[in-house]
């Protein structure tokens, strides 16, 4: 909700830092930047946003920067009723920005846990990446440009990252960001490949000497192993390391999905694709990825549905246009196909491929063969139409030869060659089975720990839980701490000389309630006892609610109706006759 145009990249960066911090918490579903920012500065009902994103709570707020001071405001809103149940302002000097981001993230995490049940919260969610605030602001400007994903914006981003590095030679995240930009420029052909890769490696060598406890570190090897060498085993190991550091790390989830697609492990790929969509549901790329899985499974109708949705989110997603074209070819939908390819590149190749698949006895024009041979070393098609066409024509052997060359060059366009429907005719060639083989089996994947096995062990045994349950019950009945409207989980934890994670765990495990519902259940019982007492008949219902520890009219009314199935006034009226 920040309207500070002059500091937009700074405000967006703070928002992204808080999103990333919260996403580190296992058990807490946090929507990623791409989908969250779809609603930036838009006046949309939070109930609609909650439905679009599949969340129970929306966090909204703003950042205000003035000279050397900063204020962050935040509020948590229930998406079912549209009611706000928490808000707070945080003020700091700009020099304390990382401490402030950490404080805000922890406050939000605690409040969500208080309302929805137990999950463990680390002592700190944000580590200070640099001592230089100016370098940090330059980094955020670079990050804003990088996320536009154009060759111009990537080069501009590198410029800002380099300025940040000039101010702080130990700014690891800036080096990792440069590495990613150079890697993309190399893979997409926007820079001479070797030049870009040398610059990427140079940044990696510096970054790893400074900080390896970031998920960017293991993931920096994935591009090399997965796309550069097709070394799937090493790629898997490094993706796992990145996801161990942050289970909701978008780049890691994307890489794991792409890896499992390449291997044909479709159940695994769908698991990670669905996790991607949980945390980033409005990403066109994620819906395209899901469509790709269905396409390789030959579920062309389902693939078409998903790729059409991807294109409603981003009409410029080129690979999605190609995938839609492929689905229409296999479904033999001639009219839709012609409409789909009008005003597109490679139109002649697309039409020929449609004819080959659906009409069979079609010859490949000699001039097209000549064009391919002349342009082979000059430009690369985004998808290998030449290989697809040759493989489904009388030139199957030439198709296989071309495919073999691309595999030897580890070209990303054919990494899924064993699954590609258009390459099915090549499976009959004896040498096909001898092409590059994966060094990662499904057994290698399954022998690794599941997410549940990786989660932290139970922090208290059954006897300890039962003992603390009794002690908590006695404390709330005898001392009535719930009458304090500012009662917090930390306050209760301090009374029992335990940390907040353990108290949250006990309340959730023993009482099957989140902290706020646990406290409010005592407040509600207290309200009911004093509301029917004749000596309080002159007091208002809201006054009695406040006397019971509730500090908000909306929270009281919502909780009362949820618990009792009626309004407070109706309940009082029916119980005081």
From TrEMBL:
Any Pfam family:
HTH_18
Gene3D superfamilies, from UniProt? Homeodomain-like (1.10.10.60), Tetratricopeptide repeat domain (1.25.40.10)
Keywords from the named record:
DNA-binding, TPR repeat, Transcription, Transcription regulation
Read off the PROSITE patterns from this record: HTH_ARAC_FAMILY_2, TPR
Please list the residue ranges annotated as the HTH araC/xylS-type domain: 470-574
InterPro entries with a match to the protein in the record: Homeodomain-like_sf, HTH_AraC, TPR-like_helical_dom_sf, TPR_rpt
Q: Which windows of the sequence hold TPR repeats? A: 284-317
Q: Which SMART domains match?
A: HTH_ARAC (SM00342), TPR (SM00028)
| Entry GO MF terms | DNA-binding transcription factor activity; sequence-specific DNA binding
Q: Which PANTHER family match?
A: ARAC-FAMILY TRANSCRIPTIONAL REGULATOR
Q: What is this protein called?
A: TolB-like protein
Provide the species name.
Winogradskyella eximia
Its lineage reads:
Bacteria, Pseudomonadati, Bacteroidota, Flavobacteriia, Flavobacteriales
């Amino acid at each position: 909700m920040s309207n500070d145009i002059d500091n937009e990249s700074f405000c967006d960066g703070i928002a992204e830092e808080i999103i990333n911090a919260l996403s580190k918490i296992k058990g807490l579903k946090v929507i990623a930047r791409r989908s969250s920012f779809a609603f930036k500065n838009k006046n949309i009902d939070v109930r609609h946003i909650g439905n679009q994103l599949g969340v129970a709570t929306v966090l909204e707020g703003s950042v205000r920067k003035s000279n050397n001071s900063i204020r962050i405001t935040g509020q948590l809103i229930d998406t079912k009723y549209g009611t706000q149940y928490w808000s707070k302002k945080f003020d700091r000097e700009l020099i304390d920005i990382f401490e402030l981001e950490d404080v805000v993230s922890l406050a939000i995490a605690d409040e969500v846990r208080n309302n929805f049940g137990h999950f463990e919260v680390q002592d700190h969610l944000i580590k200070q990446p640099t001592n230089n605030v100016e370098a940090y602001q330059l980094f955020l400007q670079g990050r804003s440009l990088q996320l536009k994903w154009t060759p111009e914006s990537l080069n501009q981003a590198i410029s800002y990252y380099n300025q940040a590095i000039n101010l702080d030679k130990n700014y690891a995240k800036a080096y990792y960001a440069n590495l990613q930009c150079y890697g993309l420029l190399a893979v997409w052909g926007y820079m001479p490949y070797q030049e870009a890769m040398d610059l990427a490696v140079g940044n990696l060598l510096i970054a790893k000497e400074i900080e390896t406890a970031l998920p960017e570190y293991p993931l920096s090897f994935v591009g090399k192993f997965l796309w550069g060498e097709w070394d799937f085993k090493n790629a898997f190991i490094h993706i796992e390391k990145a996801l161990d550091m942050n289970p909701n790390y978008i780049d890691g989830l994307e890489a794991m999905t792409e890896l499992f697609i390449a291997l044909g492990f479709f159940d695994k790929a769908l698991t990670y694709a669905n996790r991607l969509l949980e945390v980033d549901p409005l990403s066109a790329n994620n819906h395209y990825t899901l469509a790709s899985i269905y396409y390789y499974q030959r579920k062309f109708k389902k693939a078409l549905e998903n790729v059409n949705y991807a294109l409603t989110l981003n009409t410029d997603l080129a690979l999605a246009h190609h995938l839609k074209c492929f689905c229409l070819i296999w479904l033999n939908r001639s009219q839709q196909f012609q409409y789909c390819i009008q005003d597109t590149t490679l139109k002649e190749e697309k039409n020929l491929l449609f004819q080959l698949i659906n009409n069979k006895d079609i010859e490949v024009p000699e001039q097209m063969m000549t064009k391919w041979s002349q342009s082979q070393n000059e430009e690369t098609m985004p998808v290998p139409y030449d290989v697809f066409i040759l493989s489904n024509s009388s030139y199957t052997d030439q198709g296989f030869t071309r495919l073999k060359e691309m595999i030897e060059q580890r070209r990303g366009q054919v990494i899924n060659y064993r699954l590609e429907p258009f390459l099915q005719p090549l499976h009959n060639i004896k040498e096909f089975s001898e092409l590059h083989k994966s060094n990662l089996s499904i057994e290698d994947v399954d022998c690794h720990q599941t997410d549940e096995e990786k989660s932290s062990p139970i922090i208290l045994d059954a006897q300890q839980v039962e003992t603390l349950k009794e002690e908590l019950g006695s404390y709330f009945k005898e001392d009535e701490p719930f009458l304090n409207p500012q009662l917090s989980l930390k306050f209760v934890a301090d009374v029992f000389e335990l940390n907040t994670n353990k108290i949250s765990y006990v309340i959730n495990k023993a009482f099957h309630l989140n902290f706020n519902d646990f406290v409010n259940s005592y407040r509600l019982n207290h309200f009911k006892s004093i509301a029917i007492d004749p000596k309080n008949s002159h007091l208002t219902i809201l006054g009695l609610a406040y006397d019971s520890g509730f500090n908000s009219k909306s929270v009281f009314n919502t909780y009362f109706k949820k618990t009792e199935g009626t309004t407070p006034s109706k309940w009082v009226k029916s119980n005081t006759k």
